[in-house]
């Protein structure tokens, strides 16, 4: 190695990169197989209404685990699926599964599905969504999509026109992780979102940061004026819940209320109408 360093050849780093690249390729191969075999699972996390304490919707969160690797975080495998061209197939699979699971739940319960910016690239998203809705019989008006701000910056006009089309079929559109991306308040002039989800980083800072509190307050004010509901993500403590309620957040989501759980666990929760927000 010393010899190579002397020649200025970064041989050590080459070896490191080869190993990383090999790992990436085996992960990609395993994911391809998991998608083909329909082994990507979904956990659902309830979102509750502050006013009634009821679950109004559940967010579908993709889950993948392998016996030898354990659970692979969705941030990792979703990004990988985007990079290797599998995201449209994976996205459709997740949507179909969420629609089928959703049929077992009461009509008033909405199902939120995350969309990756790449799913907008093909121009086929609306067709795919309408086809899945048709094939599964899940009513479009019970479907909500969560998109991050980063979607909108890529190709704003094109993205907004696809969102309008989805919305014209009564599908709800939420802006996710609000406040941490390349946010621009002008998005709210271009498109009327149904929901804003305040990123959990603000929620976790709430009890010791004056700024976080002011930001939540400002987003709630904006949302109220624009008739959007506000979901606070990542609510973990009773104090956070209290502060968010006092600040006028209409909906809460987080480990304090419930972790993401199986579809059958959601059925059990809604059947028993268990109070997820005890007074
Ligand atoms: P997200 O859409 O913002 O989802 C919220 C994340 O916060 C989830 O992480 C959830 O498990 C976690 N979370 C919920 N409550 C709490 C809490 O009280 N405390 C903390 N610390 N975390 C909480 P997860 O499941 O690891 O997903 C991470 C991200 O991966 C998601 O962020 C979303 O961007 C992406 N993702 C997950 N499933 C899908 C999918 O089906 N499609 C796409 N395109 N992206 C997905
Ligand atoms: Mg989300
Ligand atoms: Mg989020
Ligand atoms: Mg996120």
From TrEMBL:
Q: Residue limits of the EAL domain?
A: 24-274
Q: Which domain of life is it from?
A: Bacteria
Task: Identify this protein by name.
Answer: Diguanylate cyclase (GGDEF)-like protein/PAS domain S-box-containing protein
Q: Which organism is it from?
A: Qipengyuania citrea
Location of this fragment in the whole protein: 569 to 847 of 847
């Amino acid at each position: 190695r010393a010899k190579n360093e002397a020649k200025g050849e970064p041989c050590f780093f080459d070896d490191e990169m080869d190993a990383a690249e090999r790992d990436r390729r085996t992960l990609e191969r395993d994911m391809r197989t998991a998608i083909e075999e329909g082994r990507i699972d979904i956990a659902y996390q309830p979102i509750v209404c502050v006013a009634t304490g009821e679950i109004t919707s559940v967010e579908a969160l993709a889950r993948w685990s392998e016996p030898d690797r354990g659970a692979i975080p969705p941030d990792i495998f979703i990004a990988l699926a985007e990079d290797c061209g599998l995201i449209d197939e994976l996205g459709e699979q997740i949507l179909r599964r969420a629609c089928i699971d959703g049929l077992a739940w009461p009509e008033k319960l909405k199902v939120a599905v995350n969309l990756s910016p790449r799913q907008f690239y093909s121009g086929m998203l609306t067709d795919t969504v309408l086809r899945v809705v048709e094939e599964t019989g899940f009513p479009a008006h019970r479907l909500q999509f969560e998109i991050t701000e980063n979607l909108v910056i890529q190709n704003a006009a094109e993205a907004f026109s696809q969102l309008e089309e989805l919305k014209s079929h009564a599908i709800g559109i939420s802006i996710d992780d609000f406040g941490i991306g390349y946010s621009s308040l002008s998005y709210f002039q271009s498109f009327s979102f149904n929901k804003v989800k305040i990123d959990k980083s603000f929620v976790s800072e709430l009890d010791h940061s004056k700024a976080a509190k002011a930001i939540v307050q400002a987003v709630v004010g904006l949302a109220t004026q624009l008739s959007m509901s506000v979901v606070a993500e990542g609510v973990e403590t009773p104090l956070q819940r209290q502060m968010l309620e006092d600040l006028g957040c209409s909906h809460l989501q987080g480990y304090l209320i419930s972790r993401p759980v199986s579809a059958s666990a959601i059925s059990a929760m809604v059947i028993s109408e268990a109070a997820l927000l005890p007074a």
